[in-house]
Recover the amino acids of this structure.
């Protein structure tokens, strides 16, 4: 163990000594002054006095010219080794590419200046802009009230004719005393005024009659059962659908006053009128 400590101590001591020697030599070389001797002075003296020196010889009257790698030489005015005077042109560079580059840079500078001016004007405008209150959205227009449902017309007799037909008058047809009424040749007959509405409740009640029963709705002159026929519509229970109970239907054709004066527009029981939906095939 003691031998190892001695070896380490010797190595450390040798390292310190070697570092001091190299450091001294480096400092001496760094601080040593170099003597520059003109060549002309070497000629002084006699041949009996030899002189020896070392160094690098430079010609102060010559100079090496090296163009930059990025420069293009357009023309050379001298030859290698030729004597020249101060101010003599040696070569000419091609400056066209440099001029183009310079022009592009000038244009970029002008564009930047213009952008800066525009930005300043915009900033000045924003600084002097007075905030404006937002325009409120207009109030939505109120939705119109839905059309009121028409009041149902209560069936009343006008002469022998009903002013409307609903389920309350289902048994009030003019030939109710005829037990055979309900065929194509002898239909059940309801006499109504020419403008009488036929409500869905009436049509739904007809569906309770035997299937295939024929019903004829008539309008006659003077609302009398013996008056001249103005218009008629034939229905068949086999073709009746389900209807809105309070919806009025106008199953008879519209009759003009002139046709009424002439005794009615038709006496044909198959004259088409304005049947409710699903009753188009009910005309016999």
């Amino acid at each position: 163990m003691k031998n190892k400590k001695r070896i380490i101590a010797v190595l450390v001591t040798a390292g310190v000594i070697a570092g001091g020697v190299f450091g001294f030599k480096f400092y001496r070389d760094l601080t040593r002054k170099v003597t520059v001797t003109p060549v002309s002075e070497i000629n002084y003296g006699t041949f009996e006095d030899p002189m020896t020196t070392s160094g690098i010889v430079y010609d102060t009257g010559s100079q090496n010219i090296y163009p930059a790698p990025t420069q293009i030489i357009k023309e050379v005015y001298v030859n290698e080794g030729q004597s020249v005077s101060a101010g003599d042109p040696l070569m000419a560079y091609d400056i066209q590419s440099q001029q183009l580059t310079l022009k592009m840079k000038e244009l970029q500078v002008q564009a930047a200046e213009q952008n800066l001016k525009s930005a300043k004007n915009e900033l000045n405008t924003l600084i002097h802009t007075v905030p404006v209150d937002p325009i409120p959205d207009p109030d939505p227009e109120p939705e119109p009230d839905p059309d009121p449902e028409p009041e149902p017309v209560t069936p009343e007799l006008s002469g022998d004719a009903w002013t409307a037909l609903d389920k309350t008058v289902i048994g009030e047809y003019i030939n109710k005393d005829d037990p055979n009424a309900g065929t194509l040749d002898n239909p059940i007959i309801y006499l109504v005024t020419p403008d009488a509405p036929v409500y869905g409740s009436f049509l739904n009640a007809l569906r309770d009659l035997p299937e295939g029963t024929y019903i004829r709705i008539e309008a006659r002159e003077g609302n009398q059962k013996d008056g001249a026929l103005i218009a008629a519509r034939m229905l068949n229970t086999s073709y009746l659908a389900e209807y809105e109970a309070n919806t009025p239907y106008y199953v008879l054709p519209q009759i003009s006053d002139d046709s009424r004066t002439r005794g009615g527009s038709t006496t044909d029981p198959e004259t088409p009128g304005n049947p409710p939906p699903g009753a188009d095939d009910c005309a016999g």
User: Anything to note?
Assistant: Residues 256-274, 277-284 have pLDDT under 50 and may be disordered. The helical segments are 2-31, 96-127, 200-206, 257-261. The CA atoms of residues 153 and 244 lie 15 Å apart. Residues 96-127 form the longest helix (32 residues).
